[in-house]
Automatic annotation (TrEMBL):
It holds the Pfam family ABC_tran. This is Cell division ATP-binding protein FtsE. Residues 6-227 form the ABC transporter domain. One of its GO terms (cellular component) is plasma membrane. It comes from the Bacteria. Belongs to the ABC transporter superfamily. Keywords: ATP-binding, Nucleotide-binding.
């Protein structure tokens, strides 16, 4: 039996005083690829923020990569995020340094010291996303699709057990979105668990996976045909 990587039981998710999602109960197993869909304002981003510790769980029980989300302390959040790879819609690359130094910055911030090991790791993750020759480029010299590949490489630096991708193709054209999706598919086929929030239904139909929908303050699994 694959191990459980995320489990939520009767969880309520709030933004300040506003209840966004209620009675959320779900389980994600190691190696799964799961979409999270829903209209703008349906709670997709709040759901993702809860998973990486940005929003607390006020009621119910939740665990992710062996961290208890209910009892998660501020000081534990950096350790949780080391076990997660997080990919955002807007890349969040540092504009004042090249790609190698963007990635090195993350490694140093997460406790890496050995520069030879850091260089080897950077080369490894850039190879995985087809960007091995781009390390000396600055973010502004890359296309949106290339920047998103770098963002995915950055998410892989600490060998995360789970990748959370929040609208990773949201700023990209359809062709580039498919290329990014192929990168994520390859990563998933190599055993990595991925939870991806998206509103790109063309991708969901092209690459069918388990799909959760946020609607009317609930999260529930939907069958592809019902999307």
């Amino acid at each position: 039996m694959p191990e459980t990587i995320l489990k939520l039981q009767d969880v309520a998710i709030f933004q300040k005083e506003n209840l966004i999602l209620n009675h959320v109960t779900l389980e994600v197993k190691k190696g799964e690829f799961v979409y999270v869909i829903g209209k703008t304002g349906s709670g997709k981003s709040s759901f993702m923020k809860t998973l990486y510790g940005d929003l607390p769980i006020n009621s119910g029980e939740g665990s992710i990569v062996d961290f208890n989300l209910k009892t998660l302390k501020e000081k534990d959040i950096p350790y949780l995020r080391r076990k997660l790879g997080i990919v955002f819609q807007d890349f969040k690359l540092l504009p004042d340094r090249n790609i190698n130094n963007n990635l090195k910055f993350v490694l140093k911030a997460t406790g890496w010291k050995d520069s030879v090991k850091m260089d080897a790791k950077i080369e490894e993750v850039l190879s995985k996303v087809g960007m091995k020759t781009k390390g000396f480029k600055f973010p502004h010299e890359l296309s949106g699709g290339e920047q998103q590949r770098i963002a995915i490489a950055r998410a892989l630096l600490n060998d995360p057990e789970l990748i959370l991708a929040d609208e990773p193709t949201g700023n990209l054209d359809p062709q580039t979105s498919v290329e990014i999706m192929k990168v994520l598919q390859d990563i998933n086929e190599n055993g990595r668990t991925i939870i991806m929030a998206t509103h790109d239904y063309a991708l969901i139909l092209k690459y069918p996976h388990k799909t959760l929908k946020c609607d009317n303050s609930k999260v529930f699994e939907v069958i592809q045909k019902a999307i």
